[in-house]
Amino acid sequence: xxxxxxxxxxxxxxxxxxxxxxxxxxxFNAGAIDSFGVIELIEDMExxxxxxxxxxxxxxxxFSSVAGLAALLxxxxxx
Length: 79
Description:
Non-ribosomal Peptide Synthetase Peptidyl Carrier Protein, Chain A, 4 helices, mainly alpha, 79 residues, globular, single chain, 0% strand
């Protein structure tokens, strides 16, 4: 598990402790986040990792799972 994945799993645990997510689970379909939550998630990631997401990032299929989002974060950070 990467640091990005660990941060994301922690973020979801704090907001949806009743839902267990696997790395490739779609967190929207699992009910772990709603449209307001995704705004909070984006803001928290941008602040925590000093990155900016674009509209194209939101259309990326990887954006809907912890594993995919961790990969996007790694790319944005040049890792």
